[in-house]
Amino acid sequence: MLSASIQGLAALLTPTSMIFMVLGVAFGMFIGFLPGLGGIVAMALLLPFTIGMEPAAALAMLLGAHVATIFGSSITGILFNVPGASKSIAVCFDGYPMTQKGEGARALGASAMASLIGGLIGAVFLTLSLPLMKAIMMALGPAEYFMMALWGLSVIAMFSGGSILKGLAAAGFGLLISFIGMDPVSGTARFTMGSLFLLDGIEFAVAVIGLFAISEMIELYIKGGSIVKGQSLGTMGTVWTGVWDVFQHWGLVLRSSLLGLFIGALPGIGASVGSIAAYAQAVQTSKHPEKFGTGTVEGVIAPEATNAANEGGGLVPTLGFGVPGGESMAILLSAFITMGVAPGAELLAKRMDLVFTMVWIIVIANVITTGIGLLTAKHLAKISGLPGSILIPLVLPITLAGAYAVKGRIGDVVVAVMFGFIGYLMKKYGYSRADMVIGMVLGLMVERYLHISIKLYGSWFFITRPWALLLLIAVLFTIAYPFLRNRRSKDIPGGVIT
After folding, report:
1. CA 7, 8, 12: angle at the middle one, nearest 5?
2. What DSSP character marks residue 269?
3. Is 92 in a helix, a strand, or coil?
4. Whether the predicted pLDDT of 76 surpasses 50
5. Counting C-beta atoms within 10 Å of the first and last residue's C-beta, which end of the chain has fewer, N or C?
6. Using CA atoms, how far apart are residues 171 and 472, in angstroms rounded to an integer?
């Protein structure tokens, strides 16, 4: 393995490969910055240019762009509450409140460093896990995937703040939205009201753009002023404060990275599920869970580390078994086909140097992206101090263009605006948009795997399948935990948990 690692690094450290990696990183940060796009779009746009290129150079450009979109999409999420991609939604929950408190530079610094460490952990994991992952993946089936999706829904109690009922209502609304379109099992049209446009359902990225981005611009227009509250811009935390925060919370970084690796290695789960799950476990393990959602740096560190590590995890089934770990990995498989490389046993047996080339690409691309992020974060944070009269005309057209770019349909722009007003009203009356997003993300996943599990294992699959039963216990504990925590706080004088 050492000789293959050296050969892979040597293939990458050629002038051609490094130039294409830098170009890919720059392009990925730009695409990630645009709302509604992300690593999938970046790789899809670059794929035609890889035809005829050397494998190392082609992979350097593709994976470099994909890695860079993680931080690129977090920039707009932290500064403007505009997630550049669905996997950056959880970063908005605390990243944007930090910006409102004048800690945008600190949040960007924490985001960049957490991404770097998560990416490095993902690369190490990819190196060590290929021989072991097949047994783990074979042990998990539709029943376990269903339970993991159910666990994702169970975190609603954590996001609900003072009213669990409002949280459940918001999540239920998200579930209803996810059911619009064709039934994934029977193919029956549901809630379309005879509209051909709705047969494909509500595009998740478009709805999120409206819920977070447009709703914030509406609120900024109504209230006036700027995103940063008061005169606190740049006074409450620097870029290097955010970097130090990551090292202070090294346990959270490690747990979040391992979670991202696990979820990335599961085909069809997706990075957006991983980031929400990371945020949930950060709340569960925190000594001050009540601060989440108000602008705590832990709420930025956890999803960013998970998103970065998810890339290494997603490569495990892609390289080892030819099963894409997500949509972006499916594009990577297309690149393999054009290169004449067959993933699976043949790749691991005959082209280990190419596998290590990808490992080194993840490492070096993360270092380059983090360096750019740390150098520019202070200047980017100043944008949030612009008055609404300047910021709204800048952000709103980019947001609407992002909604249109998802599928090239003008109807998606209308949908985004509608969800913008819905998001504004939800925030105004205390309904959690995070809960609604969880319902939308996990709705189809819950439905699909429930149908498959019942057909394969019967109605009592959650008891007859040992791993599913263990996950069910985890779900019940997650639901009960907020109530137990509140009860304990009442039993302690002053209501303080020590």
Report:
1. 115
2. -
3. helix
4. yes
5. C
6. 20
- Whose tokens are 């439905």? That residue is 447
| Residue matched to tokens 């949930």 | 280
Q: What long-range pairs does 325-328 form, CB within 8 A, spacing at least 24?
A: 325/264, 325/265, 325/266, 325/267, 326/264, 326/267, 326/268, 326/269, 326/270, 326/271, 327/40, 327/270, 328/39, 328/40, 328/43, 328/66
**In this structure, what token pair is assigned to residue 347?**
């790749």
Residue with tokens 């699959």: 461
Contact indicator for 110, 304 with CB cutoff of 8 Å: yes
Percent of the chain scored above 70 by pLDDT? Answer: 79
Give Cα 246 distance to the centre of its chain. 18
Contact 217, 396 (CB under 8 A): yes
Please say if the pLDDT value at position 162 is more than 60: no
- Map tokens 């500064």 to a residue: 79
The answer to whether the CB of 114 falls within 8 A of the CB of 246 is yes
Give all strands (DSSP E) within 176-253, no chain letters.
181-182, 189-190
Domain count, the chain: 1
Tokens 């599928």 correspond to what residue? 407
Question: How far apart are alpha carbons 421 and 177 in whole angstroms?
Answer: 15
Residue type, 55: P
Kindly report, residue by residue over 282-303, the tens digit of the pLDDT: 887 888 877 888 888 898 998 8
Distance CA(463)–CA(472), nearest Å, equals 9
Contacts of 131 (CB under 8 A, 6+ apart): none
How many other CB atoms are found less than 10 A from the CB of residue 435? 28
Amino acid at position 204, single letter: F
In this structure, the chain runs to a length of 498
Q: For residue 203, what are the contacts with CB-CB under 8 A and spacing of at least 6?
A: 406, 407, 412, 415
- ∠202-182-411 over CA atoms, to 5°? 30
Phi, psi at 226, each rounded to 5°: -130, 175
Helix, strand, coil content of the chain in percent (nearest 5):
80, 0, 20
Domain coverage including residue 406? 2-495
DSSP H or E run through 287: none
CA gap 260, 314 in Å, rounded: 9
pLDDT digits (tens, 9 = 90+) for 341-390: 767 666 666 777 787 888 888 888 888 888 888 888 777 777 767 777 78
Is residue 17 within 8 Å of 354, Cβ to Cβ?
A: no
Is residue 341 within 8 A of residue 354, CB to CB? The reply is: yes
